[in-house]
Amino acid sequence: MNFRYEPYEELEVDDRYKDIIPKIEVELSGEENKTVPKTIDTEEKLWHEMKSFDDVKKEELEEQVSTIENYTEDTQQEVKHHKCTHCTYQSTFKSIMDKHINNVHLGIKSHKCTLCDFKTARKSYLKDHMNSKHLGIKNHKCNQCDYQASQKNTLKKHITTVHLGIKNHKCTQCDYQTNEKSKLEIHIDGVHLGLRKHKCNQCDYQSSQKSALTKHINIIHLGIKSHKCGQCDFQTTKKSSLDRHIEGVHLGIKNYKCTQCDYQTTDKNKLQTHLDGVHLGIKDHKCSHCDFQSTHKSSLKEHIDVIHLGIKNYKCKHCDYAAYHKSNFTIHMNSVHLNIKGFNCSHCDYQASRKSCVKKHINNVHFGIKNHKCSQCDYQATKKCFVESHMRNEHPNIKK
């Protein structure tokens, strides 16, 4: 009986031992070659399996066991001789260092998705991308909530951040904390150093995050709104915006309430904007063409588009009406041409195509609330146009 040893690559062993575990082939006279694969986790199992073959020399066994022991000791005392010349990264192997430089500093991404534009430097990342994005496979599930992930590391980050509240990477200049070192570096570059490495090739937009630039291009230049409401025509670029829309419009849930008036909203930022603009009179966004001011940047943009640029993309085929917003155009069609008035007054037969019109009607007619006041005298009115008319007639010399 003769024995021949060759490297056996399919052994289910620790990656560190794969190159040194032998493949045992037993050649029996008069019989075909037989391959005997063995799963070896430790040197004890290796010794036990090899001892079953009587003709194997003890010296060969001892040499292989010694190789495993020496390899383990060397691994535990790894010396990272290869240092990156661009950052602080270090590696034990030159091949890993070459991959680091190609991936991180040269941006080489050789693995490409055949279904979308995704590119990555690692084959395993491409596999995770295919499973999660295109196949919907998420094998790693959180045992504390419904969260699922395609990568074990992603699930680990979710648990440590969401459920354990662990954020090991802290900014030394502010209170910002995160569970990822890369996010901390992006925060420092963008917030404290003002670095905007990612620039849009169609406008002046710049960002410290590549993902933010991608969103900007999709939203502003491509007009992509991937999140759509299943109950109306509402579309948005963010899932969080869609969730707020459903809660506020279709479920009537508005968790953020103003303490000084009846204003309610689904968005915390909108409540703060309301407080700043309505109750504190703060209007940071000013028009460069006239005296218009607004608490919302979007309102300023709308003002410039409509008043100064005359942009009204939604035009009625039945009359000269044109609108900047699709929602206003829909209301016009329903109320003027289709005579649809879906909002009714609870005190009388008044109907309107807008909820805000019914609210104003109730405040003005039934409650007698006069929110519009003259700045020169005690005159008050239920409508702004009444005050403007009063100013023209009673105070013609006063400039607005």
UniProtKB/TrEMBL annotation:
InterPro entries: Znf_C2H2_sf (IPR036236), Znf_C2H2_type (IPR013087). It is found in: Nucleus. GO terms for molecular function: DNA binding; zinc ion binding. GO terms for cellular component: nucleus. Residues 111-139, 140-168, 169-197, 198-226, 227-255, 256-284, 285-313, 314-342, 343-371 form the C2H2-type domain. Belongs to the krueppel C2H2-type zinc-finger protein family. This is C2H2-type domain-containing protein. It comes from Cryptolaemus montrouzieri.
